[in-house]
Design goal:
This protein is mainly α. Helices cover 67% and strands 5% of the residues.
């Protein structure tokens, strides 16, 4: 993300650059990307918006999730800096696990383990904090169920119990913390 140009320039080498261009320009753009140390890929015509939107999941949306986590830390008296100092190493470990093992195999947590009791405790605590907090957890936890199944650590019966626990509460709504 380009919030800080100096940081963005440091991180540019190794980045993937999507190219959607006519054949006449594609070779030149691929070479330019390689000259910058980037990895060029061809984005099929009409897929550029989806390609670009995917970056939001690991850019601005990830920052929004970190802000949600920091808000939870504030709920028990910690500050944003303390939350970030605690959460960023966890995030780094998560990214390393995904890089080394893939999406499903890199995921841990109570859903992946089939621990419905912990999921229920999380939901009770989050639902008491502020409207929408538990709902966001529910939306994200639902998306981890297929990964837990693919990982092989979540059984189909446990997945069903977790899905039932998750879907009993409110759905995500537009909130501002």
């Amino acid at each position: 993300m380009f919030a800080n140009p100096a940081v963005a320039l440091e991180g540019l080498p190794g980045c993937t650059v999507g190219i959607e261009a006519d054949d006449a320009f594609e070779d030149g753009l691929r070479q330019l990307a390689r000259d910058l140390g980037c990895v060029p890929i061809r984005v099929p015509q009409g897929a550029r918006a989806a390609y670009h939107a995917s970056a939001y999941y690991v850019g601005p949306f990830l920052i929004a999730l970190l802000a949600e986590a920091a808000a939870l830390w504030r709920s028990f008296g910690a500050g944003d800096r303390q939350a970030l100092e605690a959460l960023l190493p966890l995030l780094a470990g998560t990214v390393a696990a995904a890089r080394d093992s893939g999406l499903a195999q890199g995921m841990g947590g109570c859903v992946a383990r089939g621990d419905v009791g912990t999921v229920e405790k999380h939901l009770r605590a989050l639902d008491q904090l502020q409207p929408g907090v538990g709902a966001l957890y529910r939306e994200l936890a639902l998306r981890t169920i297929p990964l837990g199944l693919a990982r092989g650590t979540l059984s189909a019966p446990a997945a069903e119990r977790i899905e039932n626990a998750i879907t009993e509460g409110p759905r995500a709504e537009r909130i501002f913390l």
